[in-house]
Amino acid sequence: MSLKTNAVPAFNATGLNMIRIVIASYFMAVSIGLIHGTQATILFEALTGPGVAHFLARCLSFTLSFLLICGLAVRASALTLGLVLFWSSFITMNPETSVTALDDFWRDLALVAALLLTYQPTGTRALGRAAILRRKLVPRHLTFAANVAPRRVATPADPAPEASTPRRDRPAGGTAISLRSLLE
Question: Considering only CA atoms, which of 56, 29, 33, 27 is closest in space to residue 44?
Answer without folding.
Answer: 56
